[in-house]
Fold this protein.
Amino acid sequence: MTVSADIWQPLGRLDHLEDGEKREVTLPGGKIVLLIKTEGTVHAVCADCPHQDTPLAEGSIDGTVLTCPLHFWQWDIQTGDPVGIAELPLRIFELRQEDGAWFVRI
């Protein structure tokens, strides 16, 4: 598979991302994506809470549930679906891996 540069943005290698780790990545154009590795899988979500733009990198992760540090809204990072009191979904981004390098579709 060849990844088109106009649709997919390169993230590089993510070999050193450890389980439970969150990492913000700023893409060309200024968009910030939050990468989260949990249960051996890497996920990419919007870096800011859809409620009040709080940085979700400061939140906690429990399995696949991400919790905002401000009002404790929660989402399933696999689907973006709200969990508990959250009223808005969380935007998730598709990831691909090719020859060890990762790409995010924005």
Notes: The radius of gyration is 13 Å. The CA atoms of residues 26 and 32 lie 4 Å apart. The mean pLDDT is 93.
